[in-house]
Amino acid sequence: MLITPHQQTAERTHRMPTPQSVLMTMLGRYCVDDNPPIATSGYIDVLGRIDVSEHATRLTVTRMTERGLLERQRRGRIAYFKATEVALNVVRNQDRRTFENSTGPSGPEGVWTILSFSMPETQRNERHLLRRRLAWEGFGLLRDGVWIAPGDHDLGDVLDQLLPTGVGRRVEAFTAYPKFSDVKGMISRTWQLDELTERYEQFLGEWDVPTPAPGVRDALGKDLLLITSWRQLLRETPRLPAAHLPDDWPAERCLELFRTLHAAYDREARDLFAGVLARSAQD
Questions:
Q1: Which of 90, 92, 105, 147 could form a disulfide with 151 if both were Cys (CB 3.0 to 4.6 A apart)?
Q2: Sign (positive/negative) of CA torsion 25, 30, 33, 38?
Q3: Do 34 and 59 belong together in one domain?
Q4: 20-29, 41-50, 177-186: lowest mean pLDDT where?
């Protein structure tokens, strides 16, 4: 059901969640407040519920540690891992975007925020984090190094969270109004709205059924997969004014479905994760 670190999706329009993205969802839902160290067996337990192998889980945890998202602690012969501050900042922002109510642009009508940056290859991880954060804020890549978003965005929070990485010194941002009439053309070059519409329809096809995610073991696995799948759509969805969206844009229907299913899974999922933590603490 998931793409392992050694697999790539065959269809461009159907991007399944990766094990790392599911673990980031787990950290955001259950670990932000006290950030408990979790034994490797706990990560294997969680991802095993959605049919990820032990080997793929160990590889994912290792790579997340190398990328600065997890930090390792050793207690005797057992390795434990907890989220780094960088990861906590990322998942806090993901949760805010996932569960907030506002979806439209802010600021005066017709204004756009433009951001440009250039970072050396030695800052590849920092560049990746900035790109992901910009996508979460509704920015799209107009051309190499130039990102745009409708509305007037306060980027202070984005840059403050990445301050320890030194990213802010390489970023320029300003607001502007287009000096041309073909705004829809600019939008089509930046966001693939037809492809996004197809992916929203796929989300409905996978989750608006009597038994969603039939191969997933329990409510914890279903909720993590649901949230992660929904976030993939949100991360690539621009906060465009309704006038610039396609007719019959399916995002609102998907949002209502997501909220309904998450409400159904949430309580049992939390209880199951508490059991994961309890078993991890006994290792």
A1: 105
A2: negative
A3: yes
A4: 177-186
- 140 lies in the same domain as 54: no
pTM score of the predicted model? 0.82
What's the total number of domains in the chain? 2
* Number of neighbours of residue 172 by Cβ within 10 angstroms: 9
Q: Which two tokens stand for residue 279?
A: 């078993």
All residues at 6 or more sequence positions from 266 whose CB lies less than 8 Å from its CB, including other chains: 223
Tokens of 203: 């989300």
E runs forming strands in 58-211 = 70-75, 78-83, 112-117, 140-143, 146-150, 171-176
Which CATH number goes with the domain that contains 162? Answer: 3.30.70
Residues 259 and 211 in one domain: yes
Provide the β-strand partners of residue 140.
148
Q: Residues 128-142: pLDDT tens digits?
A: 878 888 888 889 999
Same domain, 80 and 199: yes
